[in-house]
Amino acid sequence: MKRKTFCLLAAAALLAGGMNAHAQGAYPAQPVKWIVPYAPGGTTDVIARNLATRMGQDLGQPVVVDNKPGAASIIGATFIARSQPDGYTVGTADSGTLAFNPAMYASLSYDAGKDFTFIGGLGKMPLVLAVAPNFPAKNVQELLALVKKSPGSVSSASSGPGSPLHVALELFKQRTGTDLMHVPYKGSAPALQDLMAGQVQTMFVDLPPSLSMIKGGKIRVLAVATPQRLSILPDVPTMAEAGVPGFEAYAWQGFVGPAKLPDAVVQRLNKDLVAALKHPEMRARLEELGIQPMPMAPAQFGEFVRSEQKLWSGVIKAANIHLD
Length: 324
Fold this sequence. Notes:
Elements: H1 2-25, E1 32-36, H2 43-59, E2 63-67, H3 74-81, E3 89-94, H4 95-104, E4 116-131, H5 140-149, E5 155-158, H6 164-176, E6 181-184, H7 188-197, E7 202-206, H8 207-215, E8 220-224, E9 250-258, H9 263-278, H10 280-288, E10 292-293, H11 298-319
Parallel strand pairs: 1-2, 1-3, 5-6, 5-7
Antiparallel strand pairs: 3-9, 4-7, 4-8, 4-9, 4-10
Helix pairs in contact: 2-9, 4-11, 6-11
C-alpha cells in the first residue's frame, strides 16, 4: 500500500513538473503590454501601434499599447525598468531615454546601462537641416558664411532643451565651429510654425512631422544628416556632400524590457519584431512617414546603444546641457 501510494505521489509530481515546464515555455500565455513613454498620436505612438498589431498576430496574443508620457520619457522608462522580468511588460526606449538623459541629468530613476534588456531596434527618424522660405542662404556653405560673418545672429529652433533636435544643433555647431543662437520651444509643432513664418531662421527637424511642409515648399531643406541621400528627398544633398563630412544625426527608437528578461523570451520577441519590421507592407508604411526601419539582433542593438551613448555624452558635455 505504501509502495503504491509512493508511486502515485511520484507520478503526480512528475506530471505537475511537466505541466509547469510546459506553462513556463508557452510564452506568451497572456496579452503583452507595450509601454510608450509619450502621448498618443505622435511618431513613437504610431510606430508602436503599427508594430504591436502585427507582432500580436505572430505571438498569438494581443500586444496592447499603454501610453505613459512625461518627464522626457523618464516616467515610461522607469515603469519598464521596475516591471517584472517575465516578458509581459516591454516598451519603447529612444535616443533620449538611453543616450541623452544619462548625460543631461545628474540623477535618474533608472540606469540606462543596467536596468534594461535590449530586445532590438525599431526605427530611425532622419534629421534634416531646414530653413525658413525667405532665408537668404541657398545651401549649407552659404549658411555657414552668414553665421561666421555674424556669430550668434542666426537663430535655430528646437523642440526643447535636450531634445534630439537641440543635440543635433549642438553637434553641428561643434563640427563646423559656428555659433547659431538656440531658440528652444515646447515641442516641434510651434517651432515649425515659427520656422514657416520666418520668426526663426533655421532648425534641425525630423521627417515624420515635417515631411508635408517640406514637400509643400513651406520650409526649405539644405541637407540631410544621413550617410546617403533619402529616397523621399532625392534632390537634397547629404551633409558630407554639402561640405560637412562625418555629420550624422537622427532620432531613433528601440525595444526594451526590464533587466534579466529570460533569453528565450528575448529571442521570441526579437524574432517577431524583426519579422514585423521586414514585412513589405509595414516597411512601406513606415518609410512613407520618413521612418527607416531598424531591425537588429539583441546584441547588435546593445552595441548600437553603447556607441550612441559615447557619441552624444561627449556632445552634451561639450555643450554644457543640464536638465536638473
